[in-house]
Every structure is written in C-alpha cells, then in structure tokens.
Description:
Layout: H1 11-14, H2 21-40, H3 47-59, E1 62-63, H4 64-71, H5 75-87, E2 91-95, E3 103-107, H6 109-118, H7 121-129, H8 133-157
Antiparallel strand pairs: 1-3, 2-3
Helix pairs in contact: 2-7
Amino acid sequence: MDTSPTATPTATDWLRLDQQICFSLNAASRAFGSVYRVVLKDLGITYPQYLVMLLLWEHGELPVKKLGEHLRLDSGTLSPLLKRLEAAGLVRRERSARDERSVQVRLTEEGAALRERAEQVPRQIFSATSLDLDEIRALRTRLDQLTSALDQAVHAELPDED
C-alpha cells in the first residue's frame, strides 16, 4: 500500500482499520479517558462529571436540558450522572418554580469549592498531550470543524418536518 499523504487509498485500503478516522478518534478519546481517570482521581469525579462541573463553574445554574445540549448527552445518560454528583454533595437538582417540567442544576458550596482544586487539571492534560498550545488550538479548531460537518451530514439525511 502506498502510504504517502497524496496517495488515494484503494477499495481494499478503505476497509483497513488503520485507515479509519473514526478508529483514530475513538483511540484518542479512550487514551484521554485514561489520563483523565488518573488526573481526576484526587477530585473524586469522573470525566463526564468533570464536564458537568466545568459547565456549572462557567455558567452557574443551568437546566438539565441545557446541560444535555452542551454535552451532547440525552437525559437517560445525564440523569444518573447528575444523581451521583448530587449524592456526592457537589450539585443540587430542583424543579423550576416557573416550569415544573424543567429541572435546574446548581453547584453546592462544596461543588463551587472543588473548582479551585480542579484548576490544575487542564495543565496536567496539556502536559500529557506533548503538544504545544498552538497545536492544541489548531487541533481543537479542526475537531470542531469535523463535528460541525458530521452534524450537517446527519441533518441533511433527516426528512423535512412540514
């Protein structure tokens, strides 16, 4: 197989595992998960819980629906995660006074205090990547572009709702 950057893969090459961008992204995601597991151990939270905390530290109180939209998680995945954060004393869930169907999530004092201990996490992750800041920014930009393109491809397949 010709592995030069300009070579067009053959039909057989397209089905090789090492040619699958999805596999490379999945492998990188799993590797990130392993690093985050080590880094977050002292905070007593998991990576998905860390993402929720990042949003709450940034935005304050948010409805569960908004959390799910930001994190690209459905309520079936998000609800147990929030329940564990609440059991750990880091967040509080309450029905909205304005809309009984909406559940608001807010930090507790302990959850807000955890932010200071979490400030070292991004630096540790940055260090683990062995990339410089410009490379990280460029990679994040390309991944955001990829996500957007994939979202558009999925939406293009959805029938119009008239």
